[in-house]
Every structure is written in structure tokens, then in C-alpha cells.
Specification:
- There is one protein chain.
- By secondary structure, the chain is of the alpha/beta class.
- It has one domain: Spore Coat Polysaccharide Biosynthesis Protein SpsA, Chain A, CATH 3.90.550.
- About 40% of the residues lie in helices and about 15% in strands.
- It has 9 helices and 7 strands.
- A 7-stranded mixed β-sheet has the order 3-2-1-4-6-5-7, with helices on both faces.
- Helix 2 links the parallel strand 2 and strand 3.
- Helix 6 packs parallel to helix 9 and helix 8 runs parallel beside helix 9.
- The longest helix is centred in the last third of the chain and has 22 residues.
- It starts with 6 loop residues before the first strand and ends in a 13-residue tail after the last helix.
Amino acid sequence: MYKDKKIIVVMPAYNAARTLQRTYHEVMDQGVVDLVIVVDDASQDETTNIARTLPNTKVFVHPSNRGYGANQKTCYKLALEEGGDIIIMVHPDYQYTPKLIPAMASLIGNGLYHCVLGSRILGGYALKGGMPVWKYAANRFLTLTANMLLGAKLSEYHTGYRAFSRQLLEKLPLEENSDDFVFDNQMLSQILWNGYTVAEVSCPTKYASDSSSINFRRSVKYGLSCLSTALIFRLSRMTLIKSRLFPDVF
């Protein structure tokens, strides 16, 4: 709890057996998390069995692989059903340190922001943490383009470390978003569309052999989808088109 607000950490998991326990224990070591929700997107390893051994954890399993975006949709739906006031997404691959949870929760719990991102770019941690140079370059290009089209000034749009207020999650049309990786970008664009200010905290990160990552082909598809989302946002703002992602009334 933080100021009587229930904190739930959601973990969208896929083949995370090697890192799930380590991530979970560091999450709980922060002393503020009330519940962990693990949604296993039909993993082929022992992710589900390991998750079911963890205290204060609810486990949900997709019967078939539905995609990263669909996993998050389930995560947030379950977190709201469990009465979460502050919902924080932490990837179970231990790429992002859970030690930032209290700081991110306090920014929301004190009523300062409704969305907080853990940025790998602030402080120059991305390359130091092992992010491949081509991914770093793509991140910078996509972020620059998104800032211009969305009218924001974020350091990155592609971090998987995110905290949200209940009020914000209840407002977003998440079911209209993709079930694939571009869900993250669409969700963030919807937050900006609704006029919310997004906070960022500097986040050290590390890329290891057991960290989740998408290959080059899927990265290209993701990048093109992000550019498309930003363009749809701008055209919708100019009232040149209508999109279910960005409804007229917010």
C-alpha cells in the first residue's frame, strides 16, 4: 500500500521461467506491493508452475499464445478487478530493476501524475546496459518522430516499465489496440491524446541472454507500426480522419 492505495504489479510473461522468481522477489522486497499478477501467454517452459508457487500472486494462463498486447490487456483487466489503485507493469525477464517501484508509485500516489515511465535513455543507461546499437538508433529515431507528431517531449516511447493510476486505465480504450508489440506505443499515444502528462524516471537496465527481445524482422514491423500510430494521432488531431484508437470525446 501507498497512502491507502493498493499497489498491484502485473507481469506479462512468456517463457520467463529462468528469471521470474528473481524478479518477483525483488519486487516484493520493495515493501509496498500488495499483489503480483502473472499472465502467462501459453509459455512452453515452467513459467506457470513457478508462478503458482509464489506467495501473494495470482496466475492467469492464456490457453494459446495471443501476443504481448493481448497479455497486457488481460493484466490490466485483472488488476482493476482486484481493486488496484496503482498498477505497475514489470517484465519478468529482470531487464528493468524493480527497485524503482516505490518511486514510481509515489509519483502516482501523491496525485502528481497518472502515468510514469522507467526510461532507459535518461542518464544514458541504454548502451551502458547492453542495448544493441541498432536498437538504440531505432529508438532515438522513433522517439524523435513521435515527439514531433504527438506534440510531446518524452525521452523514449518503447520502455516496458510503466506505472498507471486506476483512473487512467479505466479511461483508455485498450481493447481497440493491437494484440502485438505496438500495443505499448498505442497505449502511450492514447494517454497523450487524453491530455495526461507522462512522467519519466531514469532506469538502469541490462540486456542478458535470458532477457526477452524481438528479432530484427519483428522490430521493423514494430517500428513501422509505431510510425503509423503517430501519423494516425496527428491526422486525428487535425480532424482529417477518425480512428477508434483516438475517439473524439476524452
